[in-house]
């Protein structure tokens, strides 16, 4: 098998995992269950691999917590569609304004649910992406047989 030398193997697997997780979550919610997607499963992928006995050429991309919610939480404001939906061509006009608008919506949502916000949503997001927050992903992918060199 040579596809594991290419980042394409990670891309195709991630798309498939995301699609199947979304279907699982939609189905679970239709049955009255609650869900939480867990990207944090990639924080210590070596431990998850051990725990689940995952063989070579597999990797824990995404987890989903499923259960009966104890209550109904408020719906987090969704990002304006202008930030990610583009017709025919990528359109970067107004992106900054829309982000600033979303910052305001998030601030009011967080206040509503009683969470203290030290910095706004966009600054917090920028801070997260300034770091390789899950440094084990790359070496553990290699251990699992994914070279990612092409
Ligand atoms: C791809 C993805 C990964 C996520 N990973 C985590 C996670 O690791 N831990 C966690 O507590 N929530 C995680 N979440 C859940 C979000 O925190 C959750 O969606 C947020 O609380 C807002 O809830 P809502 O989108 O259902 O309104 C993730 C969400 C997505 C879409």
UniProtKB/TrEMBL annotation:
<keyword id="KW-0560">Oxidoreductase</keyword>
<keyword id="KW-0288">FMN</keyword>
<dbReference type="InterPro" id="IPR000415">
    <property type="entry name" value="Nitroreductase-like"/>
</dbReference>
<feature type="domain" description="Nitroreductase">
    <location>
        <begin position="12"/>
        <end position="68"/>
    </location>
</feature>
<dbReference type="InterPro" id="IPR029479">
    <property type="entry name" value="Nitroreductase"/>
</dbReference>
<dbReference type="GO" id="GO:0016491">
    <property type="term" value="F:oxidoreductase activity"/>
</dbReference>
<protein>
    <submittedName>
        <fullName>Nitroreductase</fullName>
    </submittedName>
</protein>
<dbReference type="InterPro" id="IPR016446">
    <property type="entry name" value="Flavin_OxRdtase_Frp"/>
</dbReference>
<keyword id="KW-0285">Flavoprotein</keyword>
<dbReference type="Pfam" id="PF00881">
    <property type="entry name" value="Nitroreductase"/>
</dbReference>
<comment type="similarity">
    <text>Belongs to the flavin oxidoreductase frp family.</text>
</comment>
């Amino acid at each position: 098998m040579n596809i594991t030398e290419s980042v394409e193997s990670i891309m195709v697997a991630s798309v498939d995992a995301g699609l199947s997780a979304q279907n699982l979550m939609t189905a679970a919610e239709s049955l009255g269950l609650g869900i939480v997607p867990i990207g944090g499963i990639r924080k210590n992928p070596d431990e998850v691999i051990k725990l689940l006995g995952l063989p070579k050429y597999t990797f824990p991309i995404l987890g989903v917590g499923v259960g009966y919610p104890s209550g109904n939480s408020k719906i987090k404001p969704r990002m304006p569609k202008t930030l990610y939906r583009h017709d025919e061509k990528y359109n970067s006009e107004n992106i900054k304004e829309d982000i600033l608008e979303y910052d305001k919506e998030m601030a009011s949502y967080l206040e509503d649910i009683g969470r203290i916000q030290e910095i706004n949503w966009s600054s917090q997001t920028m801070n997260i992406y300034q770091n390789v927050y899950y440094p084990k992903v790359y070496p553990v992918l290699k251990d699992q047989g994914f070279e990612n060199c092409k």
